[in-house]
Every structure is written in structure tokens, then in C-alpha cells.
Amino acid sequence: MKKIFSLLVLAMMVLVLAACGGGNDDASEGSGNEGGSEGSGETKTIRAGIGLNDSHPQYLALLEWKKLVEERTDGAIEVETYHSSQLGDDRGMTEALQLGSQEVTIPSTAPIANFVPEYSVFDFPFLFPNEEVADMVLDGEVGQKFLDKLEDQNLVGLAYWENGFRDVTNSERAIETAADFEGLKLRTMENDLHLDAFSALGANPTPMAFGELFTAMQQGTVDGQENPIPTIYLQGFYEVQDYVSTTHHIYSPFVFLMSKEFFDGLTEEQQTIVTEAAVEAGALNRELNREAVAEYAEELKAEGMNYNDITPEARAEMVEIVQPVLDEYAEQIGKETVQEVYDAIAAAEAELAE
Ligand code: TK8
Question: Where is the signal peptide (predicted)?
Fold first, then answer.
């Protein structure tokens, strides 16, 4: 009898322990915030994709971010990096973050305007006078306000990186004045303001994913495109383009985006790590990008491209021609929002002039 009683007690203990064990599993299936290295212990994987190739400062900085995050989380987070549009184009990868099928991408602000229209202000031609002012505004209060606008789109903006000042290349003619844009089949990023601004200048703009651009220029589907010098050189555009004109018409920021669902599933410590690493790697991206411009400009000339600067008078004429487009977008975006950016630029310029 005693033996049967002991067996019953043992069986009861096993059942109680099993029930407790199931409760822990349910807890780990909770909101996901308990996850991470202190939580259930499983490794979290980040799929980070960009459109530029693996020689570009953006990718080199992404590798730095990967190193910092994996080291500082003791491997609780692993980062897989993908370049050259392997995971899709900027718009598609941003949508993948919203859907949770990808965790990180770093697009230009232009395609982000399809998700948060106010971002078009960063693509106002001739908005930022130089990189120093751009850094101060983007890394300051106004820049943070724009990052906060991403949350409603299930996106988290961790930091601003640098694409850079955009210049025009084409296979037809040097762009000396606005009149030279006449009839030029110009690829633009998928952003209505870019389309409207280049139409106002007399070009024939076509929105196109970055991954399709080289072939389009090679086949003559488009005559030209506009991107910063490092991209023009490192993506080999000199192989299919004859002219590069330093219009510097837009300073293009990148935004380091993370899926909000994934970010919210990290521990607070991990959220701090991925954010601080994005800022640190962003500083490297800016440094490498700026160091490269002068050297790559010379390389483009050595590869046989016709290279011309734009005179201040020609730039002033372009500003005047696109101004009505900017006025229209200021109405759409909100005049107060646009003015806040212009005020921050003026304040940064005043501070630098002291
Ligand atoms: C690369 C793009 C590129 C951008 C463009 O994914 O599309 O022309 O300037 O850098 O983000």
C-alpha cells in the first residue's frame, strides 16, 4: 500500500513540475520584450539590407554596426548583411520592415517620403548649404522630430547616415545651366518632389529602383541619373555615362531604419546597444563618404568622364526655377514643419559663423 502511495505522490510531483514548466513557455511567448540575452536566451537574427554595393562607405559602416552589435550583446543578436539590392529596393525593403520579414534597411529620405510625406522636405533642392549644417540639423531636435514620425509606420529611425550631395550624370551633354536639362531622360528616386523638380527644370524624369539603374543607362532607357560622387564611382556609372556635372542640387541623408516590432521585442539594454552603434557607425559612414569625394572625382576624370562644376549663377537660376515646386510641397507638408527646418538651418549657420 505504502509503495502505491509513494508512486502516486511521485506522479503528482511530476505533473505539478510539468505544469510549472509549461507556464514558463507561455511567458516566453508573451509580448517578446522579455526576450534577448537575459530572457529566453535564444539568439535574435537581424537581416540588414541596402541597395549600394559592398565597396560603398554605407556598407562598410553597416559591417561596423554589425561588429559593434554582436560584440556588445555577446552574440545575443546576430546580424546578416545584404548589399546590392539582394533583398530588394529601398521602398520594398522598407515595406519588409513594416511587415516583419526584414529588420534593418538604410534608405535615402526620398523613398521614405512615400511612408511619411513630411520627409520630402529633406529633398528640397539646395536646402542644406554644407555637410556641417546638415549634421547639426539632422542630429539635433528637428532631426529627432522627424525620426519620431516613423513610429506610426511601424518603423524606428535609429540615426541619420550620409548619402551625400547629389550630382547629375548623363550620356548626352554637360549640364552647365538649367537649359541643359531640356528633354533629358533622367532617372530619379521614387519621390514625387524629385519628379516635379526635374520636370520644372525641363527634364523628362522617370522614377526607378536603384537596382535597375545601371542596366537602364547601359541600354539607353534613361540618359542619366543623379547621385553623390562616391556612388557614381563605386557603382561603375562611368562605364555607361559620359558627363558628370556637380550640381550638388540635394544633400541626401540616409536613415538607419529598424522594424518597430523587432525593436520593441529587444531588451532595453539591446535597444540602447543597437541605437548607440547606429550613431557610431554613422559617424564612420560620414567620415569615409567625405574623405572619398575628392579622390573619386579624380578617378571619374581618369576614367574619361567629362567633369564640370556648376557656377553660382547657374545654381541660382535652378533655385529660382524649382521654387514654385517647393512652395507647393511646403503647402502639402505643412508650412510650420518646413519653416522649422529652415529655422534650424539658419541657427546652425549662425552657430558655425561664431
Ligand atoms: C541605394 C539608394 C541610392 C539612392 C538612389 O539603395 O536610389 O539613387 O541615392 O543610394 O538609396
Answer: 1-18
Per-residue pLDDT tens digits for 70-87: 999 999 999 999 999 999
- CA of 51 from ligand 1 middle (Å) equals 7
Counting from 1 in the atom list of ligand 1, the atom nearest the Cα of 108 is: 11
Sequence spans of domains, the chain = 44-353
Per-residue DSSP letter, 148: H
Question: Taking the CB of residue 146, how many other CB atoms lie within 10 A of it?
Answer: 24
pTM given for the model: 0.88
Ligand 1 lined by 58 (C-beta under 6 Å): no
Atom of ligand 1 nearest to the CA of 58: 10
Closest atom of ligand 1 relative to the 210 alpha carbon: 7
Q: Quick one: pLDDT at residue 17?
A: 47
Using alpha carbons, select from 176, 165, 203, 210 the residue that is nearest to residue 307: 176
> How far, CA to CA in Å, does 133 sit from each of 22, 66, 119, 136?
56, 28, 18, 5
Q: What angle do CA 235, 239, 245 make, to 5 degrees?
A: 80
Average confidence score pLDDT of the chain: 91
193 within ligand 1 shell (Cβ under 6 A)? no
Cell numbers that stand for 68 in this block: 559593434
CATH level 3 topology of 44-353: D-Maltodextrin-Binding Protein; domain 2 (3.40.190)
